[in-house]
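Hi everyone,

Forwarding the result from last night's run.
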Amino acid sequence: MLPAVKTSVPYKIPEDFAFIAGVSQMPFVVSINAKVPIKSMAELIAYAKANPGKMNFGSAGVGSAPHMGIALISVAAGIDRVHVQVAGLGPTTNALIAGTVDLALVTPPLIKPHVDSGAVRVVAVTGKTRHPLLPDVPTLQETGLNVTTIVSYGLSAPTGTPGPVLAKLRKVMTEMIEDKAVVERLRVIGYESDHLIGDAYRDFIVKNLDQWRAVAKAANIRSDN
């Protein structure tokens, strides 16, 4: 059993928010230092099981999206992992290249130059479909793990924001999300546009939160929220 780690945030979801719109989303890529002798998710899982507690991973801290994503994968695959806290995705990528950490979840645009240079190897994409920047990299589901994790970007306001203000914001966001130029620009930089407005965006966030609470419990990550 891994020791418990604890995380908390100074707000409650969904009570403290008025949800306006989801804007875009992006998966992570399971990325490995090139010197680690692993070339697939199957090899990663086999290595981790044969060497419990030896493989480490970097993330921006307890409860961050990469930390929870690795926890999700670890629970699904039945493997241990050693967490190394790093100060964000950029420093995590640097640590991965340097070999300070063996494994990390990094976004496709950030990791692709280092894949091209041979400094990093990638073995899976965490979204439901392959990513256009890395079309040869399979999804986790294609490798046999029935899990996905994405980073979702959206707009919310504090609970109590006047109704007319929320309505105006939702209207403007709908127009923006449906703008073909915006959709294309997001695609070029590696994002998928989102089309969740108001209650649909709220329902997505609540469902996601329920999933992560279950993962936190299974991975022995304690949360106050």
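DSSP finds seven helices and ten strands in the chain.

Cheers,
N.
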